[in-house]
Amino acid sequence: MRRLKLAIAAPILLAVPALAATRPDADPLRFFAGRTETRGTVKVVFHKPYRSRSLGVGRIEPDGSLTLVQRVEDDGKPPHERRWRVREAGAGHWTATMSEAAGPVAIDQVGERFRFRFVMTGHLNVEQWLTPLPGAGSALTVTKVRKFGMTVATTEGIVRKL
């Protein structure tokens, strides 16, 4: 179920715009410049839930985009690296590439929350919602992974700036 590890990756990226929503003057991508951490629990149908942790190091490129490299540590599995590149596509919209996605990642601001949508290999459709928590230093993330319209995995976690 290596593909489902992606369900933990999106929360880290989502925290950027969500945390900025509480501070309109802030550049949402700057949240991930430096170090971030995501901790959560992954639940896959017919499997025991497991904990996941991602440590990210990000930088803002000269063109204003974000490059983020994460070390993903899932219980019982060897660590691996995940890479993101995020660009603003317009007011309240971002587009991204991610090493485990099968295509582009669409990021949209919906009120004070942010929604990520993308497809992973194996025809897994991912929708993730991020809700900023008080203080703008962390956010709640909830992810659903669907295959053929049925939910096959969920993830809940917290993203925070280190």
Description:
- The chain is mainly beta.
- The protein has one domain (2-161): Lipocalin (Beta Barrel).
- 10% of the residues lie in helices and 57% in strands.
- The chain has one helix spanning 6-21, and strands at residues 34-44, 50-60, 66-74, 80-90, 93-98, 105-110, 113-120, 124-132, 138-147, 150-161.
- The protein has a 10-stranded antiparallel beta barrel with strand order 1-2-3-4-5-6-7-8-9-10.
- A hairpin with a 3-residue loop joins β7 (113-120) and β8.
- The radius of gyration is 14 Å and the shape is globular.
- Mean pLDDT is 84; it is low at 5-26.
Give, in spatial order, the strands making up the sheet with the most strands: 1-2-3-4-5-6-7-8-9-10
Biggest sheet descriptor: 10 strands, antiparallel, barrel
Radius of gyration: 14 Å
Principal-axis shape = globular
In the CATH hierarchy, the architecture is: Beta Barrel
Oligomer: single chain
Strand content: over 45%
**Stretches with pLDDT under 50, minimum 5 residues:** 5-26
The CATH superfamily is Calycin beta-barrel core domain
**Distinct helical segment count:** 1
Written as H for each helix and E for each strand, in order along the chain, the element string is: HEEEEEEEEEE
Number of strands: 10
Number of domains: 1
Helix content: under 10%
Q: In angstroms, what separates the terminal alpha carbons? A: 29 Å
CATH domain class name = Mainly Beta
Mean pLDDT: 84
